[in-house]
Specification:
The complex is a heterodimer.
Chain A (H helix, E strand, L loop, with lengths): L5 E9 L6 H4 L19 H4 L16 E4 L11 H9 L3 E4 L4 H10 L2 E4 L2 H13 L4 E5 L4 E4 L2 E4 L4 H9 L3 H6 L2 H9 L14
Parallel strand pairs in A: 1-2, 2-3, 3-4
Antiparallel strand pairs in A: 1-5, 5-6, 6-7
Chain B lengths: L4 H7 L2 E3 L11 E4 L2 E4 L5 H10 L9 E4 L16 H17 L2 E3 L9 H7 L8 E4 L13 E4 L2 H10 L1 E4 L3 E8 L8 H12 L7 E6 L1 H4 L3 H9 L8 E3 L4 H7 L8 H11 L12 E6 L6 E3 L7 E3 L13 H14 L14 E4 L7 H11 L9 E4 L4 H9 L2 H8 L2 E2 L20 E4 L14 E4 L2 H10 L13 H8 L1
Parallel strand pairs in B: 3-4, 3-6, 4-5, 6-7, 9-10, 9-12, 10-11, 15-16, 15-18, 16-17, 18-19
Antiparallel strand pairs in B: 1-2, 2-8, 13-14
Helix pairs in contact in B: 2-5, 6-8, 12-14, 12-15
Classes of the chains: A alpha/beta, B alpha/beta.
Amino acid sequence: MEAFTTHTGIGVPLRQSNVDTDQIIPAVYLKRITRTGFEDALFAAWRKDESFILNQAPFKAGSVLVAGPDFGTGSSREHAVWALKDYGFKAVLSSRFADIFRGNSGKQGLLAAQVAQDDIELIWKVLENAPGTEVKVDLVSKTVECGNVVAPFEIDDYTRWRLLEGLDDIGLTLQHEEDITAYEATRPAFKPKTLPAKS
Amino acid sequence: MGKTLAEKVWDAHVVRKGEGEGANAQPDLLFIDLHLVHEVTSPQAFEGLRLAGRKLRRTDLTIATEDHNTPTLDIDKPIADLTSRTQIETLRANCKEFGVRLHSLGDKEQGIVHVVGPQLGLTQPGMTVVCGDSHTSTHGAFGALAMGIGTSEVEHVMATQTLSLKPFKTMAINVEGTLRPGVTAKDIILAVIAKIGTGGGQGYVLEYRGSAIRALSMDARMTICNMSIEAGARAGMVAPDQTTYDYMQGRPHAPEGADWDAAVEYWNTLHTDADATFDVEVDLDANTLEPFVTWGTNPGQGVSLSAKVPSPEDFGDENAKAAAERALQYMGLEAGTPMKDIRVDTVFLGSCTNSRIEDLRAAADIIRGREKDPEVRMLVVPGSARVRLEAEAEGLDKVFKDFGAEWRFAGCSMCLGMNPDQLEPGERCASTSNRNFEGRQGKGGRTHLVSPVVAAATAVRGTLSSPSDLEPASAGTLTEIAV
């Protein structure tokens, strides 16, 4: 995973709450077996509407999504994160993220920054009054800057550390393989096994 | 101090405690007892293993089934949609390469992953269960800690049989009282979501408690735990009891003999201690609950079936107001319209929420001896091939077919329309599934989430209806029963 320290890019105000992962990427695009190339699928239904924010210059070139509360609810599909990343987004700002979406973002190096709703409203105003304004997201100081707005954001320390270092999760866990093997030896005999198959 | 059920299961699976305390603590490394796999969220994970030269650590704790993409008609023919077929074939090749047990289309154990696990007896109390699907919360009905994970986590579990997780907070959902006739588990969970909101459970494990929950069957408890994710909670649980044990005993992978006794002894410890405290408690009165239905485009936008479509002005919060306006526009509804005046085009009985044998029985009981509204199309999709066989052995298929419903093969089907079962733009559906998101059941489709008995009554009347709205069933059927 690529390390993340700061990013500055055009902010996209998405004035909507409860943006579920079915909206971020409709199910029809989940049939692919690759991990990249999902940029066309991002907000596919909404992008058919010409007035949708990502169809307007300069937002089309945005890389920081500023959304309403409860972003990423619903399905666990990590494709939602892949689609945002493939389109070019580096960070999403919201006052509340769904747990699975936030977890998936952390694994893929997309920064899910939790910003108070009052600050989100201020940033929306700046971005709407002056489209194309850039948002600076600083993971070191845990702040976002947009026009004259400077706001703190929250992210758990472990995810922040992994993002800053660009660390691979599986590699980290396998450093403790002895602990896993030791745990396996203590599991009770009544726990089920899928093999051999019984029916 | 005592522990909650969720904390007990968590503590029993800690491989390695994260360093540090409180908010700054590193995650714990938890052992995973069962990993369920399906075709949609696994190909990139298998590919990741392959690229890194890693093995799948515990094939004996992993099982795969085909469900999201599978057609529910002509299952003996090659899948027509090429991308769907490729995804299924990729799962087959990956399972073969990595040694994973797979139940393919046509196999009698094939079906929706969350129906198959419990049915085989692989889901048991006190286990940790994961799957690359948010409705993994279903398995919490057995007192398991079960949660949906993303594809990166799927790969992590494949490689290590563990997951790094930060401890959750706990929320008790206390449901006391007795449900009235025609009111079901689905109505309980829709009412819970309407009460706490789609984000209300974020960061929590929910534990459903109280006399109304104790009185429910396992199928009904699964319906409730299934939709925990719709309240934002990654997991929901019910403490195991005699109902759980009775369901489990004799299932293919349930413990036997001395193992059964040892298991039951352990399972009996899996309840929240009297002196344990939850971070939050929510109460719901089962006595006054009515059939529930959604009017909007998220599962929290629901009301009693006897109520009217709400107005955006009813909502104090600006975001909720804007969301309601948008939802009404998408759903093509006017504020103030009685919910029961809303006409539907399609009724879908299926999905991991409501496709088990009891769901089919409950719906069949409503339609037996009645006629379907001729304008309404009804799809009945059993949750698994085994549920389908069981239903056919009871003659339920005949009840549905005589009524004019389509009797299909098992899969996720119209819950998310990854296969050909989709709504047309503007089409309206009463659905026993779990998500009424924009376009979920097909581009432009409009979804009202309901229970199986409301779905059945709606198919009779053509408008959203509860069983109590129906005229008595025809005399012909009564005679048949008498004979």
